[in-house]
Design goal:
Helices cover 33% and strands 29% of the residues. It has helices spanning 36-44, 59-68, 85-100, 118-135, 181-190, 204-214, 216-228, 234-244, 250-255, 278-282, 342-351; strands at 2-7, 53-58, 77-80, 105-110, 114-116, 138-143, 154-164, 167-176, 193-203, 261-265, 269-271, 291-293, 295-302, 305-307, 313-320, 322-326, 331-335. The two termini are 40 Å apart.
């Protein structure tokens, strides 16, 4: 049976100051009328029962996510005591699901991606479920790159392929973290590389077996957690084990080292909404190429991203290629070329004691 695991523990610092610690990106209405996590659930709920949808988040966000996702059973909101990256997150979810259903297949996705259209995504998940069941492979979706982006990881595919349910499937040869521009250009020109979508499908038993082989310390902790499930000590055991877990991604801990990794070439549109620049891709621009969400009036203003609310007027004169974000307590102005440095700014705010604005 197919289960969904939605990872929703991120803090979304690249969308500061709109995104805050208590209202990160997944709880914002960045596109459309619903929050991103609600859109993620709505995308799959017609094909995956709400009883089989799990959300993994941090303790400080659990109540907000429960309130936002009333259609998901409260017991399916898995609370991590603190973040330990995706290997621990996925391992915990796999442990809980395997304890319930030893034959479970898991579709793992994040809470803050844009995927269109939903029917093509669901078709791809069904193909991946069949492949995972028949081959015990670790499966990821590769996104055909339309530019040499330095903001995504890349996966190199094999030359040989098979066709399953109208999808092209390749063996994964190697994973590369965010490359420099020249390397990314070479990847795209070769035609052998995909963007790493961060969407995975595998059986719960297969991912736990791979964690046992490749991350034995994490596996030991997960085994102790499994023994505690349903007991009065469950929360304490999870907390104690999480304190010992390393902060490692599933890509680095498992996917880059595993021997049976398959890539399904995605036929759906995908955007990871990774920075303010995504607002331009996902929303309409005016005649001066400004993307405006809020109330704005300007002179000689071109190519900006301007975010505010309808009660606060933002005005500009002779401003180009900037990100301007105004909230009730913070105004941020940033050159679009430096959007990735917003994470550095939030680190500086912590260092200087401005935590109340985070």
């Amino acid at each position: 049976m197919l289960y969904a695991v939605i990872m929703a523990g991120g803090s979304g610092t690249r969308f500061w100051p709109w995104s805050r610690e208590k209202t990160p990106k997944q709880l914002l209405k960045i596109t459309g009328q619903d929050t991103m996590i609600k859109q993620t659930v709505d995308r799959i709920i017609d094909k995956i029962s709400s009883e089989n949808i799990y959300v993994v988040t941090t303790a400080c966000l659990a109540d907000s996510i429960k309130a936002e996702l009333s259609q998901i059973p409260a017991k399916n909101i898995i609370s991590e005591p603190f973040g330990r990256n995706t290997a621990a997150c996925i391992g915990l979810a796999a442990t809980i699901i395997f304890n319930r259903d030893a034959d479970a297949v898991m579709a793992v996705m994040t809470a803050d991606h844009i995927i269109e259209p939903p029917d093509l995504f669901l078709k791809a998940l069904k193909c991946a479920e069949k492949l995972a069941t028949e081959t015990n492979a670790l499966i990821t979706f590769g996104i055909k790159p339309n530019e040499p982006s330095v903001n995504y990881g890349y996966i190199q595919r094999s030359e040989d392929r098979i066709n399953l349910q109208d999808f092209q499937i390749y063996d994964a040869k190697c994973f590369t973290e965010k490359p420099d521009r020249a390397t990314a250009e070479g990847f795209v020109q070769s035609g052998e590389y995909y963007w790493n979508s961060g969407i995975f499908v595998w059986s719960a038993s297969t991912i736990l077996d791979n964690i046992n082989t490749l991350m034995p310390e994490l596996s030991k902790g997960l085994a102790r957690i499994r023994k505690s499930i349903g007991t009065p000590d469950e929360s304490n055991i999870i907390y104690n084990e999480y304190e010992k877990f390393d902060n490692i991604s599933i890509d680095y801990g498992v996917m880059e080292k595993a021997s049976n990794v398959k890539i399904i070439e995605a036929d759906f549109e995908w955007d990871d909404v990774g920075s303010w620049l995504a607002i331009e891709r996902l929303n309409n621009s005016d005649q001066d190429n400004n993307t405006i969400l809020g109330n704005h009036c300007g002179i000689n203003t071109q190519g900006n991203i301007i975010i505010g609310d309808n009660e606060h007027l933002i005005t500009t004169i002779n401003v180009s290629d900037m990100i301007i974000v105004s909230t009730k307590d913070v105004t941020m102005v940033c050159n679009k070329n430096n959007a990735e440095d917003i994470k550095k700014l939030t680190d500086l705010l912590k260092e200087r004691g401005y935590n109340c604005y985070l």
